[in-house]
Amino acid sequence: MGQILSNPVIDKEHHSGEDRLTAFGLCAMQGWRMSMEDAHVVQPNVLNASHKDHIALYSIFDGHGGSSVAQYCGEKIMSILQRQESFKKGDLAQALIDTYLQTDEDLLKDPVLRNDYSGCTATSILVSRLQNKLVCGNSGDSRTVISVNGRAKALSYDHKPTLASEKSRIVAAKGFVEMDRVNGNLALSRAIGDFEFKSNSDLPPHEQIVTAVPDVIEHKLDYNDDEFVVLACDGIWDCLSSQECVDLVHYGISQGDMSLNDISSRIIDVCCSPTTEGTGIGCDNMSISVVALLRDEETPEQWFERIRAKNYHIATSFESRRRQVFAYYQFPKDNASVFEVTTKKPQDRFSQDNAAQALSTSVDNDHDNVEINDTDTDSDAVTSNNKRKGGPAASGSNGPVDLFSLEALLGAGGIQVSQGPNNVSYIHGSALSEMLASLSNAAAGEMVPEEDDEDDDSNKNEKKIEEI
Length: 468
Fold this sequence. Notes:
- This protein is an alpha+beta fold.
- It has helices at residues 68-83, 85-88, 92-109, 164-172, 234-237, 242-254, 260-271, 300-309, 318-325, 340-343, 352-365, 403-412, 432-444, 454-467, and strands at residues 4-18, 22-33, 38-43, 55-64, 119-128, 133-139, 143-148, 151-154, 177-178, 181-182, 192-193, 215-220, 226-232, 286-293, 415-419, 425-429.
- The strands form 4 sheets. The chain has a 6-stranded antiparallel β-sheet. Strands 3, 4, 5, 6, 11 and 12 form a 6-stranded antiparallel β-sheet that branches.
- It is globular.
C-alpha cells in the first residue's frame, strides 16, 4: 500500500465548466497518501472558433513513483495532441495513440525527466460533434465508463500484468511477472514514463516490457441513450465497480440539488477509507471527472431534467454504498457522521469529553514507542517517519496517538501545545510543573514525595522550568 499519513489530507481540488458539447464536474483529493500524484485535463473544446468541428478532451493521469510525469501530462497533453497530423486530419483514434507515444518521446528529450523514475497511467476521451463520436484511449488501470440508459458500458479495460496478452509481451521483452507485478515492482503493465521498463533498444515502443500504447475504443453517440461519462483513477475503481459508480452518479442526479461537482466530490467521500487498519482500499489518491453529454442547444440544467425524467430506480445511496464498501468498519448509526473522515479536520475530531477515555485506552494498550513529527499545526495531516501498524485510532482500536489527539489529551489536563517561531512547538500551562515533577521522579526511580516535602519539591520544579 506504500507509505501513508496518520490522517488523510481532505482538501479537495474542484473544477467545473460547460460548453456546447459537454459539461463536467471534477474532484481530486490526496487522501491518505504522502503526496498527490494525480493530474487531469478538463477541456470542453480544444479547437478554436475557425474550425468546423467542436472537440472536447478529458483525461485522468494517475502517477506512481512520483508526480513528475503525471504533472507533465496534465500540462502538456493538449498541446501534444494538437501537434499530431492524425488529429489535424480528424483521425481521433490514431491521434490518441500518437499523442501518448509522443509524450514519451518528449519526456525523453527533457534532461531532467528522462532520468525520472516515475510514470503515470492515462485514460482520455475525445468527443467530436462533427463526427458524432466519442473515442477513448487508455493505458494502465485508470478507467473510463459511459452510462447508456443507466447501464455502465466499458470504454476502457484495465491493463494488469496478469492478463495473458500483457504477460506475453512482458515475457517476450525479457521481463517477468512476480506477485502480480511487472518484474515484481509495477502493478500495471502500460503507462507513460517508467523508462526503466522501456530500455530495450532492439524493440519498438509497443513491444517494451511496459508500453505507453493505449487501447482505443470508439463509441457512436446516441443522445437518446447516452447520458454521461465517468473517468477516474484506480483509487475509485478499487472501491466501486463501474455499475456502482454509474448508479451513484444517477443517485446524485435524482436528488435535484447536486451539481456534477457535488456528485464527484461525494463519490470521493464514499471511497475514502475511514481508517488505515482495513484492507488497504480507499487509501489511494483519488480523482474523478463526471462528463455530461449535451444535446444540441441543451443547457446543463435541461440535461439534469432530462436524465431525472428517466426515473431510474436506484436502490442505493452515498451513505449505504460507503457502509458496504467498508463493511468491516463500525460507522455511527446516523448518516451525518458516515463521511466524517472527509468532512471534518483531524484536529476537530477530538474533544475534551473523549480525551480522558482516549488517554486511558492509550496508556492501557499502546506500549509501542511512537515518534511524533514536528509539524505545522495548520496542516491537514501528520506524517510518520516509520511504518505504521495502523491508521488513526477508530472506535475500539488501539492505534498510536497522533499529534492532534495528543493536543487534546494534554489540553484535558490543563497543558497546551502552541506554535512558536520557525515551526517550533512548545508546551505550557498550569499543570506543566506537576508533569515535569512526575517525569523527573519516574526517571530517578523515586516514590511520590511526602506532603512535608511538597514546598521544597515545588521550588526544585520551578528551577527546572527556568533552566528549560
